[in-house]
From TrEMBL:
One of its GO terms (molecular function) is DNA binding. Residues 115-286 form the Tyr recombinase domain. GO terms for biological process: DNA integration; DNA recombination. This is Phage integrase N-terminal SAM-like domain-containing protein. Keywords: DNA integration, DNA recombination, DNA-binding. It holds the Pfam family Phage_int_SAM_4. Belongs to the 'phage' integrase family. InterPro entries: CB, DNA_brk_join_enz, Integrase-like_cat_sf, Integrase_catalytic, Integrase_recombinase_N, Integrase_SAM-like_N, Tyrosine_recombinase_XerCD. PANTHER family: INTEGRASE_RECOMBINASE PROTEIN MJ0367-RELATED (PTHR30349:SF41), PHAGE INTEGRASE-RELATED (PTHR30349). Residues 1-90 form the Core-binding (CB) domain. Site-specific tyrosine recombinase, which acts by catalyzing the cutting and rejoining of the recombining DNA molecules. Gene3D superfamilies: 1.10.150.130, Intergrase catalytic core.
């Protein structure tokens, strides 16, 4: 993001310090999108923000939510990210710049989304990846769920290198029960190959200390352990997987494309559409490759 910093809105030095907190480019892109969107709306630098600017922005976002253009959860997400940045800037900014966090009071009354597929906020997903960075197997499992949309059952069913193929420069997984191979994004493929290079020769791709195949209960316990380590709420493996569908829709993928990636029907996949990351990560479908996870 730093090469595209709008210096007329955001102090480059403050942004460079702030973004060091993130491991994934997805999180960085989400925060950057919301910060610059807010500044463009106000027509002024972040450090010049006044309470009346935040009040006006909230009214604007509230109207968009009420009209169905965005979801209430999207408004909450934007204000959470803006609060996080402005609080950081308020404490860390130098050179006489003065930032004020006028966003926090609004967070107390933000509406929670109910009855739809649950996903994980990008900052929590980023924290989860950081927490798992010391265990390559766990990191690879999270990456396959988050980036490729594999379920815990599909992951535990993988046997080894024979379940993966290359078509040209692209990698795919041969998943039992799916009619077509599942595309593995390049960043996820690189992490998977790194794991392959150090794994032992066992009967399954992922295994426990005894060399036995993992089961879904193991992954459930894994999620509990690493969510606690990350200091975030308790999320399920399914919530991690849901993020893949949300990201695909955010980048303009069609219900058919998303259904094919997730191994679901178009009818099932429509419950993800328009939710969560859509407003924060608007991109063309052919720019989806810009979502990347770094190797641990």
């Amino acid at each position: 993001m730093s090469q595209n910093v709008h210096t007329e809105f955001v102090n480059k030095k403050v942004w460079e310090m702030f973004k060091k907190r993130f491991k994934s480019h997805t999180t960085e892109a989400s925060y950057w999108s919301d910060i610059t969107e807010f500044c463009r709306f106000c027509g002024k630098k972040a450090e010049d923000t006044e309470k009346k600017d935040v009040d006006r922005y909230y009214s604007y976002m509230k109207k968009k939510a009420e009209s169905g253009i965005i979801s209430p959860l999207t408004v909450t997400k934007k204000f959470r990210e803006l609060h996080s940045f402005f609080k950081f800037a308020e404490e860390e900014a130098e050179d006489g710049a003065v930032y004020r966090d006028y966003f926090y009071p609004y967070l107390k009354n933000m509406e929670k989304e109910k009855g739809l597929a649950r996903s994980i906020p990008v900052e929590d997903m980023d924290a989860l990846l950081k927490a798992a960075s010391d265990d390559l197997a766990v990191y690879t499992i999270l990456t396959l769920m988050y980036r490729a949309g594999l379920s815990s059952t599909e992951i535990t069913g993988l046997n080894g290198p024979e379940d993966f193929i290359m078509y040209g420069e692209d990698g795919y997984a041969l998943i039992s029960g799916r009619e077509e191979p599942c595309y593995i994004p390049r960043d996820a493929w690189e992490i998977l190959m790194k794991y392959m290079d150090q794994r032992e020769n066992c009967q399954s791709l992922f295994y426990n200390r005894s060399g036995r195949r993992l089961n879904t209960m193991y992954i459930s316990r894994m999620m509990k352990k690493y969510c606690q380590k990350a200091g975030i709420g308790q999320y399920s493996a399914e919530a991690v997987r849901n993020c893949c569908a949300f990201n695909l829709f955010s980048f303009g993928a069609s219900p058919k494309q998303t259904a094919e990636q997730m191994g679901r029907t178009q009818q099932q996949i429509r419950r993800y559409k328009g939710m969560s990351y859509r407003e924060n990560l608007r991109r063309k479908a052919d720019e989806l490759v810009k979502i990347r996870i770094q190797s641990p």
